[in-house]
Design a protein that fits this description.
This protein is of the alpha+beta class. It has a single domain, classed as Metal Binding Protein, Guanine Nucleotide Exchange Factor, Chain A (Beta Complex). Helices cover 25% and strands 24% of the residues. The protein has helices at 2-29, 45-51, 54-60, and strands at residues 80-84, 90-93, 97-98, 106-107, 115-120, 127-132, 138-143, 153-156, 161-165. A 6-stranded antiparallel β-sheet has the order 3-4-8-7-6-5, with no helix packed on it. A 3-stranded antiparallel β-sheet has the order 2-1-9, with no helix packed on it. Strand 1 (80-84) and strand 2 form a beta hairpin. The longest helix has 28 residues, at 2-29. The termini are far apart.
């Protein structure tokens, strides 16, 4: 009897794990949008693969994450603009960038109407995903532990962005 209960418990746990994994995969395949929104710039997966590097494709289109500390944009201090690597949409001014200590470029505010958010339920947690308004590319996540005046931390993948220095 004890062995049967143990087996049924393991079976129930496995079923719950499979259900959670399937839900995570379904959430991740809906490119940056859980609302079936269409974006101004829409490409096929093959077109995105051709336009982006493998690392950019992994982050922007498959909701991946780069290794912390791996992006040169984390150390970028010059005045300028951070833009989407997928479509060139300006996203953040260097004036809102700060050192968060996380290993990813962090900002306390995006440019007006540049970044949209959606609910991300992957990895068995609920977070706020940030994506490009123009192409839907996954940029990173937003957390409520940032500096004033917003109290937000837009924790972005550097590979998902490009930097355009301000001309003197």
């Amino acid at each position: 009897m004890k062995g049967r209960r143990m087996f049924l418990g393991l079976l129930a746990g496995a079923a719950a794990g499979i259900f959670a994994w399937r839900r995570q995969q379904e959430d991740r395949t809906m490119t940056a949008t859980k609302t079936n929104k269409t974006f101004e710039l829409d490409r096929t997966e093959a077109e995105w693969r051709q336009a982006l590097t493998p690392e950019q494709f992994h982050v922007l289109r498959k909701h991946g994450t780069e290794r912390p500390g791996s992006s040169a944009l984390n150390r970028e201090k010059r005045p300028g603009m951070f833009a989407c690597a997928g479509c060139g949409q300006p996203l953040f001014s260097s004036e809102t960038k700060y050192e968060s200590g996380t290993g990813w470029p962090s900002f306390w505010q995006p440019l007006d109407q540049a970044v949209e958010t959606s609910v991300d339920r992957s990895l068995f947690m609920t977070r706020t995903e940030a994506h490009c308004r123009r192409c839907g590319g996954h940029l990173g996540h937003v957390f409520e532990d940032g500096p004033k005046p917003t109290g937000l931390r837009y924790c972005m993948n550097g590979v998902a962005m490009t930097f355009q220095p301000k001309e003197s």
